[in-house]
Amino acid sequence: MQEEHGPAPTIWPLGFAVGIAVALVGLIVDPQWVASAGAIIAIVFGYLWARDATSEMRRQAPVVQAEVREMTPAEAAAIPPAAEGEAAMARPEPGERFPRSRFLEASTLGLGGLIGGVITVPVAGFALLPSFLDQKSYRVDMGPVSAFPLGKWFIATFMVDPKEGETSRRTAFVRNNGFVAQGSKQVPSFTVISNRCAHLGCPVQANGPTGAILGEKNEIEHTKNGEILLRPVLPAGFGCPCHGGQYDTEGNRTAGPPVRALDRYQFDIVNGHLVLLSTYSVSHVVGTGAQAKIYKYKLAGPGEHVDGPEQWFYPLNPPHHY
Ligand code: FES
To answer: What is the pLDDT of residues 48-66, one digit of tens each?
Structure first.
């Protein structure tokens, strides 16, 4: 019976599978250490596995004797020398640089590529370009700074673009932190937190009494952006009704599935009015109010990590506003 020359069984695939399993579990329990350890195990065992599997290819070819057959002198005499007889393929004409077969090959590939490009480029352009272009930035006039008494929270509801109507209505939690020293100047500080959940984007609610329960009235400011509704609130934190995500009053995730802190609005003070600008994402916040240290990132979509190794899973992030 002929002996089989398959590779001997090894434990490398098993080690590789264990490494992948540890890395996946680590992404949930401890992305920094457990996931990294799993990735290292998978890489080491994967390398050993690949090295074993390709050892046959890297081995030097064995030297064997040329095959020989017996032939009678008459048979040997009947075989013409290699340089004589009819060529299997016509030789190119003198001066001919591209034989017909090469021309057909090149023209088939070129025509195929051209047709593919004509079909693909416009479709890909229409599908992808709008994500990168035509992203307007907004300025939302929220009313005079005096409408936001020091240290009080408001649930502010507004339209980022009244021309777009209700589809542009947004909610933010706003608190006036007073003035803070910046160099030799005193500059106003506001905390403006978006209510878009960092898990899947549901509207986050303030955990605490509002308006009449507090014995305070809702206010409406009339600005260039139409009516701005300001509802006083005393939040102990913020909570998401969809899957139970919880945040503290700085927007830090405290429980549930969200992957980062709540997004925030940049702001400016223009002619004594609070003006909201674009939004940005936040991994976490240390400290509170005017003294808070905010770890700020480019705006990311719901569910996207902005720091740690998981951020590598989101390499393309088209610019967008909401
Ligand atoms: S969308 Fe908020 S917890 Fe899921």
So the answer is: 988 888 777 777 777 777 7
Provide the residue range defining the domain that includes 27: 12-52
The CATH number linked to 273 is: 2.102.10.10
Beta-ladder partners of 196: 203
Indicate if 169 and 296 belong to the same structural domain: yes
Residue with the smallest CA separation from ligand 1 atom 1 is 200
230-257 b/e (C-beta count within 10 Å ≥ 16 → b):
bbbbebebbbbeeeebbbbbbbbbeeee
| Total number of domains in the chain | 2
Ligand 1, atom 4: closest residue by C-alpha: 243
26 shares its domain with 160: no
Give pTM, 2 decimals. 0.63
Pocket of ligand 1 (CB under 6 A): 197, 199-200, 202, 240, 242-245, 256-258
Question: pLDDT by residue (tens digit) across 98-141?
Answer: 667 777 888 888 999 999 999 998 888 888 777 777 667 789 99
CB 207 within 8 A of CB 195: no
